Each structure stands twice: as structure tokens, then as C-alpha cells.
Description:
Blueprint: H1 2-17, E1 28-34, H2 36-53, E2 57-63, H3 70-73, E3 77-78, H4 105-111
Parallel strand pairs: 1-2, 1-3
Helix pairs in contact: 1-2
Amino acid sequence: MLPVAQRIVHDVDDAISSISGNTNDLEGPLRIKVPTTLTAVFLARVLAGFQQTHPNVSLDVVVIDRNVNPVQEGFDLVVACCRTSYDDVLDVGLCPLDRFVVASPQYVAVNGYPQHPADLSRHRLLKLRTNWTNLVFRGP
């Protein structure tokens, strides 16, 4: 997970830095939307560094996990974990985001190891709410 997060942070940093051809002349407002956990763990340092490097930029960071339409909600840049497409918005993939189903050895010892994704319906799950309605399993 750490390498994926590091790639995301690097790509977001590059995206912010490349907004203008000459990064030394950046000025004005920049409104961005970022996901909560990614920001708390990784992006806060990148955004603070950007703000320090570009003091003439008024950085408005909105930390929320829902999808937003940048045009309708007035964002210049949106970082999201779910792919969405809106008219008049350029989607650029930063990196793939892998998701995993995990269990502690103690849980598996008591409840058994699922042999098929359908078996998960009989297990107690702690899941992150997203706009995704289905999980897609690939591989063994």
C-alpha cells in the first residue's frame, strides 16, 4: 500500500507543480478536493510544501470523500480514488489503486477461510463505504 500511496503523492505533487509553465510565477486562488485518508497520511506534507514554495497562491483545500463534479462545484483540481467522468473535465489516471480483503489469523481460526467471494456474505465485514456497488475479484 505504501508504494501506491507514494506514487499518488508524487503524481499529485507533479500535477500541482505543472499547473503553470513557470512554477516560480504561480499566483492566485487554487481550489482542490482531496480524499480524507490520503490527505491525512500523505498529501498534507505535499500541500504544505506547495504552499510554502508558492506563497502567492491562495490554496483552498477541501477534504471530502465523495465524488464531485469539478465544474459544477468550482474545483480546479480533484484527487479521487474512484474514476468518474464529467462533461468538460479532463480525467487523468495517476496510478492504479488496489483493494484487498484481509482478516486476522484469529478471525479465520474462529470463522473459517472463505473459499469463494460469495462466502463473504456469511462473514462479519468492516468495509469502507464508497460509490462502488460491487467488488470485482481477480486472481486466486
